[in-house]
Amino acid sequence: xxxxxxxxxxxxxxxxxxxxxxxxxxxxxxxxxxxxxxxxxxxxxxxxxxxxxxxxxxxxxxxxxxxxxxxxxxxxxxxxxxxxxxxxxxxxxxxxxxxxxxxxxxxxxxxxxxxxxxxxxxxxxxxxxxxxxxxxxxxxxxxxxxxxxxxxxxxxxxxxxxxxxxxxxxxxxxxxxxxxxxxxxxxxxxxxxxxxxxxxxxxxxxxxxxxxxxxxxxxxxxxxxxxxxxxxxxxxxxxxxxxxxxxxxxxxxxxxxxxxxxxxxxxxxxxxxxxxxxxxxxxxxxxxxxxxxxxxxxxxxxxxxxxxxxxxxxxxxxxxxxxxxxxxxxxxxxxxxxxxxxxxxxxxxxxxxxxxxxxxxxxxxxxxxxxxxxxxxxxxxxxxxxxxxxxxxxxxxxxxxxxxxxxxxxxxxxxxxxxxxxxxxxxxxxxxxxxxxxxxxxxxxxxxxxxxxxxxxxxxxxxxxxxxxxxxxxxxxxxxxxxxxxxxxxxxxxxxxxxxxxxxxxxxxxxxxxxxxxxxxxxxxxxxxxxxxxxxxxxxxxxxxxxxxxxxxxxxxxxxxxxxxxxxxxxxxxxxxxxxxxxxxxxxxxxxxxxxxxxxxxxxxxxxxxxxxxxxxxxxxxxxxxxxxxxxxxxxxxxxxxxxxxxxxxxxxxxxxxxxxxxxxxxxxxxxxxxxxxxxxxxxxxxxxxxxxxxxxxxxxxxxxxxxxxxxxxxxxxxxxxxxxxxxxxxxxxxxxxxxxxxxxxxxxxxxxxxxxxxxxxxxxxxxxxxxxxxxxxxxxxxxxxxxxxxxx
Length: 793
Fold this sequence. Notes:
Elements: H1 2-15, H2 17-45, E1 57-64, H3 77-84, E2 90-95, E3 102-105, E4 108-111, E5 115-118, H4 122-125, E6 130-132, E7 144-148, H5 149-156, E8 165-168, E9 172-180, E10 193-196, H6 200-204, E11 219-223, H7 230-245, E12 251-257, H8 261-264, H9 277-304, H10 306-318, H11 323-360, H12 372-397, H13 402-406, H14 417-449, E13 459-463, H15 467-470, H16 473-481, E14 486-492, E15 503-508, E16 517-524, H17 528-532, E17 536-539, H18 549-552, E18 553-557, H19 558-563, H20 569-572, E19 576-579, E20 582-590, E21 605-609, E22 616-621, H21 626-640, E23 649-650, H22 651-656, H23 660-694, H24 696-704, H25 709-743, H26 756-782, H27 786-791
Parallel strand pairs: 5-10, 7-9, 16-21, 18-20
Antiparallel strand pairs: 1-11, 1-12, 2-5, 2-11, 3-4, 3-8, 6-9, 7-10, 8-9, 13-22, 13-23, 14-22, 15-16, 15-19, 17-20, 18-21, 19-20
Helix pairs in contact: 1-11, 2-9, 2-11, 2-12, 2-23, 9-12, 9-14, 9-23, 11-12, 14-23, 14-25, 14-26, 16-21, 23-26, 25-26
């Protein structure tokens, strides 16, 4: 019997090649896209779970008053917790510089962002295996350093790196004591180098930094015993904070599970940009939505062909076939088609993964041999798709009464409310995805063109690592200011859009019962504001003609003056502020500018004079010949430093990098929208073709009676056009809801009213593609010879 069912199924597929091709390709594409997205979702959900102690490892989150929480407490916290709480089995810290250090070997050097400083207990907390060296001693020596395998090949080629040396910032010599396997992509922090914290103070030039509670820059991790209640330990941390800092309401610590970091964390000081669990569930829903679209295509086309199969059902039932046999036959056809689609889908998946890597900048690797979960998932999805797609046609067709079918009593093809509903559902999904993509790019355009409170265009950023150049900021600026392409130059450690070096508690020294406020800090010299195009709203900026400014003066932004209770910026001028055990006077108030991404509201900011050292230079250019200008700037740099190679970036590019993750999500959702639209259009193509085929005689009669081809095409396409319009009406509120939820993640965002054109465009694209698809089929039928049409069947 099974052999007979197979023969019938294959015969049906050969007879209806277009129908079979549309269904198989649609299912294959749906399976491929679904599997690709689910691979990505699985990777996102598996972050940090490769560590053996992952389920009992926690990171410390620091909350100060009403400020946003951060994950970079002071360096003394980890040893203090180990001494205070016996249940802390291990504790370790991670520190990354806010500037990019220069790492060199011989005459070759590179700026390396992924240099992390940590404790020897690092390997007691995390499972990053060493392929060379001893994890028990590799980080014991102050100036030892570990490399990943890729980094070791980069600096030493095929040579053994153990015992070799690397120079950091052209001054500090580190000895290689180990080589680690490259960290998996599912780690919430990346690194190319690991060095002991004991050497961090020397490299950063900040003696005693590891004893400073106020220097919030050290991610802190704890391993607690199995069965520890995190809430109970959090309560202990409340008492600890009160004893350590005094006021428990202004300062507290809490635990965050290691496995929650990647998807549930957007705190200040994150080592890497994390993802969002909402995106992950949205992607999972998107994967199933696309697979559902492919299944809807099958259901639509199978039920649309019911008239021809209805006679088959009637004859077989009259010959004694039971309903369960018919159900088995139709489900078997569906599963056969799903099996063929699975093979095609796996081939398409290989192509899609190449495109995914280019789209998202990440590689999704899997192996059919070693990844049994993926194989089961792929086969399971194909079976589920085959059963879901074939269930309705199977039970619907098998229910026909033989007498009614053979007498022609079964309803015609236009009596298909379910089919219409499925077409509406398909195009409503496509409208939601198209509109969502448009909203993402509209918001990204907004954040990239919004006035930020400074001028980001034509600003060149040059990092300074050479200690001799750092010590002579005036000479460094002068070397560039004589160039015809450079209009302004300033030295600074703080640029908008970067992680500022830290925060500090500041209070009004002249107030009664002054309340301290936690504020972000920036450093810039006398030309800092003018070079970046910032505007003073009151007072003056720092001046090289006033040497006392270095020790006595400070600038505030407008938000800080309001926080201190000043009615106007002018009232803040001359106010003494106390912090770091010193008192400084407010000499100017700068207009609020966005020193973080537009996801965050502008907070209070303190600007300190940077007149003693130049950790970075910013140059404002005025030129139409950028390559020539850069060549002249490089030549000027070479007169300043022979130890540090010339590197640069443009400030507007650096700021655009803040939204790289959103750009990638926009690309992914946009690609999914195109796939969804393609799958929906395939189904509509098949339905339009079948509708035209079913009305062949009607078309012939209308042509004989004088109807034009355009009139007939309009008649045939009208029903489908109305369905797409209904889909737009249904999909728009869903798109509005989803867009609003996503935009809520930005403190500064476009309004939905400003995006009305996006929704109209999404509906227009869907209607245009659907209209063209149906019209092509309708015109083809309308141009057929009426004699042949009247001979049909």
